Amino acid sequence: MKHKSKLFGLLAIITMLVPLFVGGIVGGAATQGNVDITLHKKKYDTMPETLKNTGEKMSQFEGIAGLNEVTFEAYNITALVYPWITRATNPLTAEEAINKVVAAATTIQNGGGPVTVEEKTLTDFTNFGSKADTKTTATVGGEDGIAKFDNLPGKTTVDGKDKDSVFLFVETAQPKNVVGRAAPMVVSLPLLDKDGKTLTDIHIYPKNLIADAEKGLDGIVDGESAKDLPTITVGDKEYKNVAVGDLLQYHIDVPIPDKIGTLTHFFVNDIPTNGFKYKEIVSVKAGATTVDSTLYTVTVDKKGTISGNSITKNDNTNGFMIEFNMKEMTKYAGETLKITYTMTVEKEILPDDPATNEATVNFDNEVHELEGPDAYTGGYHFVKIDKNSEKTLEGVGFKVEAPGKKFVNFTQDATSKEWVFAGFAESKEKATEITSGTGGKLTIRGLLKGDYKLHETTPKADYVPLTAPVDFTITHGTYKDLEEDSSPTHQKTVENIKKGVLPSTGGAGIVAFLVVGVALMGGAFIWYRKSKVNEEV
């Protein structure tokens, strides 16, 4: 089984930290040397309850996975914010100043700007202040998602006076598959621990929601919708149960990268196992909006790979690839792309083996593999024999009755000579008659689990036809174990008796015959003795 990759959709969950990190801006704090600030980039499937950062290591985040390859830049914005809060006329509070910085930085981070704040025009992050450092999250000490900014100055000179430093942290780069970015964060010094002591080793936990790319099987197409498929037990798990000819509806959900406009290639491959075949795209949506078909191209029986700066299309029997127009898809950045499509279950599907279709999502050669849900079909084996001689009988005709008193149509596989499900007949008379082949063997496959009946319709010449149908049950293992066991438990023997032939020696029939014969002979002997006595008298 291939490992399912997650496409991390960072949905811009703001961790502004304003209530905590504003203490030093108004002045009067103790002198502070350099500090280390460590960012712990955390990811969640669902957003947890709000936890206030303390500036110290927090045990609440232990065991929460981190996210690597995310780049942060730190800017010293002390000289920007102090004049706003120390001016004589209409000074801002520390919180107001930080809120304005975060709002302006968010606009620029999202591609907007220039932004004018308190008569200051901001076009990029360098207008906020000098860059202190750049770090990319990585695995440090066995923990993912770590970006450590060492030796940041605790004090910054503003108009000739040392002021407590204020830093802006912005997320500037992510893996190509990331959707959205964490909002800008502001940290002002000094920070105090629970005992009132100045912290020099500061820890911040940006919390981000992740969205997985996901592949699912919606069900069997019924009119304009998909209804649930039956299930079949395999081991201790339940899987979808399918039959040949079923039209299945699938979906692939892919978070659209926030920076999709910077990518060259974005495409999805669907790669089925033997037994599934792509039919058509039902819809492509970004959020609730239908994506126009001119924005993507579907290529059947192919899968894409990237070589150099171009896409190579390789054989992908019964599958497909869907390639998107990068320029036009930028308007959907941050949305979840849902590709809904159908596939048919083909006669090549083999019972008792998992059938699936995997997908790969490719962002400029960053490939992410998605596992499709496994599905199973069923089958059964019979052998037709002479009850007396155990000679196998070829050419005996049968019809199969499915649950619900429906009779089954079949087609015969030209290679294996097995009979493959081909839908239901209008009546028993119109159902396909299947016949035993070489060695008296008769195999059916491509059916759902359930209780069936085998009706003998054309007996072998000179043989007594069966008057009652043969009951059998299809479930997982009733087909494949014939290949794995020389004495399979699920091969049903169907016996016939030749016309005018007594049952074989030792059978119940011969015993009854002998009992009757002995009784007749005994009766004849008694009658003879009585006749002799009468004559003598």
Automatic annotation (TrEMBL):
For the Gram-positive pilin subunit D1 N-terminal domain, which residue ranges apply? Answer: 33-208
Per the database record, which ranges form the SpaA-like prealbumin fold domain? 381-477
Per the record, the domain of life is Bacteria
Q: Where are the transmembrane segments?
A: 506-528
Where does the Gram-positive cocci surface proteins LPxTG domain lie?
A: 496-535
Q: Which terms are listed as keywords in the entry? A: Cell wall, Membrane, Peptidoglycan-anchor, Secreted, Signal, Transmembrane, Transmembrane helix
The name under which this protein is listed is Fimbrial isopeptide formation D2 domain-containing protein
